[in-house]
Write a structure and sequence with these properties.
Elements: H1 9-13, E1 20-24, E2 27-31, E3 37-45, E4 48-57, H2 62-77, H3 82-94, H4 99-110, H5 116-134, H6 144-155, H7 160-179, H8 209-220, H9 226-238, H10 242-246, E5 253-254, E6 259-262, E7 273-276, H11 279-292, H12 312-320, H13 332-343, H14 348-355, H15 362-367, H16 373-391, H17 401-405
Antiparallel strand pairs: 1-2, 2-3, 3-4, 5-6, 6-7
Helix pairs in contact: 4-5, 4-7, 5-6, 6-7, 8-16, 9-11, 13-14
């Protein structure tokens, strides 16, 4: 092994700024412009090139660097990324008082109370936006400026709302640490006013019934992917959230009973939801059934049958049909249904229940536990019939839905 080494102490001592001195098998010395000399190890893991720091010369000797290099190479042969192994070792040495350790402990306690989708979203927020920057820090070392710097990284990407939510879950972790005596204070309240407020989103939607009829005709004439066309047909009829519709599973849908039952772990509000299916929606499901009916998902991803269609697919189709971002959005189908159904006299509670909105008022929420199913069945069929008339260009001849249904 020794014969394969190229470097000597003398070569390192006399190396000029900017030099790169190889020692073999990825180990080398890099000399900075100021003359500082660093031991580095270049390797590949998971198809990516990585560089591992092994110390600064002369505090780290050439022999020490070679020993660390050999240990890293041994770790690689075991299928483990040596840099990740070193991070894990440091976390173990520092004990359970780091932010990441306490955050994962808090997360494990909360998971039983959350839907699968919400739990996945929360841990991803930590892993993407927090752990890489303050995960290895002890709680009391995370001062308000350190926390603010972490959150500003998110703001700088344009995701102000995400920054606000990350601040909230970080505060929960600090409170958990306070209760168990592993932190002295929560720095997040000191950041009040330090972050820009989230920009409210106005989801673009068509307003004029004649324009809505034109959109429906454009969807009928869309000759792209069949699954995308079926999603676009169902969005205005059922006015579910895009994620809920794209994630549809065949086991949830009973075409004979004309009913779709979505479990609580697939709903934004964490509450199971029933969607009465009008005849036109059943026809769409029958259209797609020969293509995807043998699988779990109604609208699987093009690349993986185990994942639902991407959120960009229906939006991209709208843009290809000529509907710009200021004119129509995927969420806009819910806005159209909510606006017109209210205008046409349907009971507000039935509309809100069909939209699967979670009532913020506790008294009204208790009152509104009723499913309103009989009226919603009537409303959904009348709504689908109304959309048919708009599609046929009869917007000026449409009578109020509720009156027609009676």
């Amino acid at each position: 092994m020794a014969g394969k080494h190229k470097l000597t102490d003398r070569q390192i001592k006399t190396a000029k700024p900017g030099a790169r001195l190889p020692d073999g098998r990825g180990l080398y010395v890099k000399v900075n412009a100021n003359g500082a000399k660093y031991f580095r190890f270049d390797y590949r893991f998971g198809g990516k090139r990585k560089t591992m720091a092994l110390g600064v010369y002369p505090d780290t000797t050439l022999a020490n660097a070679r020993e660390a290099h050999q240990a890293a190479r041994t770790t690689l042969t075991e299928g483990i990324d040596p840099m990740e192994a070193r991070k894990a070792h440091k976390r173990t040495e520092r004990g359970a008082d780091t932010f990441e350790a306490i955050a994962r402990e808090w997360y494990a306690e909360q998971v039983p109370n959350w839907s699968v989708a919400h739990a996945d979203k929360q841990i991803r927020r930590f892993e993407i936006h927090v752990f890489p920057f303050i995960g290895d820090m002890r709680m009391d070392d995370i001062t308000p400026p350190v926390m603010l710097d972490c959150l500003r990284r998110i703001v700088d990407t344009g995701r102000r709302d995400t920054a606000k939510r990350v601040k909230g879950i970080c505060s929960e972790v600090f409170c958990h640490a306070l209760a168990s005596g592993r932190a002295q204070r929560d720095p997040t309240p000191d950041l009040k006013g330090a972050l820009p407020q989230p920009v409210s989103k106005n989801h673009a939607s068509l307003q004029d019934p004649a324009d809505i009829g034109g959109l429906l005709r454009a969807i009928d004439g869309y000759y792209g992917n069949l699954k995308t066309r079926c999603v676009l047909k169902l969005l205005p009829m059922l006015f579910l959230r895009s994620k809920e519709l794209r994630g549809a599973e065949w086991r949830e849908i009973d075409l004979e009973a004309a009913e779709w039952r979505l479990p609580l772990d697939r709903m934004k509000g964490g509450r199971a939801h029933i969607v009465p299916l009008p005849e036109q929606a059943i026809a769409v499901f029958r259209e797609i059934e020969p293509l995807t009916g043998r699988g779990r998902l109604v609208f699987p991803n093009e690349r993986s049958a185990d994942r639902p269609m991407t959120d960009n697919a229906p939006l991209a189709a709208l843009r290809r049909m000529g509907f710009g971002r200021e004119e129509m959005s995927v969420h806009g189908f819910r806005t159209i249904a909510s606006t017109l159904l209210n205008e046409q006299g349907w009971h507000p509670d039935a509309i809100e229940r069909q939209l699967a909105h979670v009532e913020g008022n506790a008294v009204r929420a208790a009152y509104n536990k009723a499913q309103h199913l009989p009226e919603r069945r009537q409303m959904m069929q009348a709504w689908a019939d109304y959309l048919d008339r708009l599609r046929e260009g009869k917007a000026d001849k449409v009578v109020p839905l509720h009156a027609a249904a009676r």
